[in-house]
Design a protein that fits this description.
Blueprint lengths: L2 H4 L8 H5 L30 E2 L9 E3 L4 H8 L7 E4 L5 H17 L4 E5 L11 H10 L8 E6 L9 E6 L3
Parallel strand pairs: 3-4
Antiparallel strand pairs: 1-2, 2-5, 4-6, 5-6
Helix pairs in contact: 4-5
């Protein structure tokens, strides 16, 4: 006996009775219009959004959902880079393209960590251009969320003139 009938609602149909004549939707998975006032997230790859443990220091970032222990290990130099990407001395556009190409190659090769040498920006007129641009470049949609974290390198690996970048293995 259905729960509705146990409560004394003899005239109310059961759920099974109510849906007995229904059929599955034939257009399952097809595009449907989004009601006005709501937004549908784009289906294309979206850039990663990094969290910055210290909002004043954007040289240290982690993708949401990644354990902070991985960031600590990366920051301490506990995950050794398998590839060096030297951007030092390049202008912004060529540096960005080289970075994206090299990271894509590293991902394809199954590498876990790369070291990006960007320089300290001592020759920049105002601020360190490459170092400041790095977080935005690592969030590029072409990397498809493969960058998990980044941190300034240890002094023996370049210190504030380089960064470790932790990659998701494919």
């Amino acid at each position: 006996m259905s729960p509705a009938r146990r409560r004394g609602d003899e005239n109310e149909p059961s759920f099974a009775d109510a849906i007995q004549d229904t059929e599955p939707l034939a257009d399952r998975g097809k595009h449907r219009e989004t009601p006005r006032g709501t937004s549908r997230p784009p289906t294309a790859a979206r850039p990663v959004r990094f969290e910055f443990p210290d909002p004043e220091d954007r040289a240290l970032g982690i993708a949401s959902g990644i354990q902070s222990s991985q960031l600590r290990r990366l920051r301490a130099g506990g995950i050794r880079p398998e590839r060096d990407i030297d951007l030092h001395g390049l202008r912004a556009d060529p540096a960005r393209q080289l970075l994206l190409d090299e990271i894509c190659e590293a991902i394809a090769a199954g590498e876990r960590c790369v070291r990006v040498v960007h320089g300290k920006g001592l020759r920049s007129k105002k601020e360190p251009v490459l170092r400041n641009a790095l977080p935005g470049w690592l969030a590029d949609p072409r990397l498809e969320g493969r960058v998990l974290a980044f941190a300034p390198a240890q002094p023996e690996d370049g210190g504030r003139g380089a960064a470790y970048v932790l990659l998701r293995r494919s």
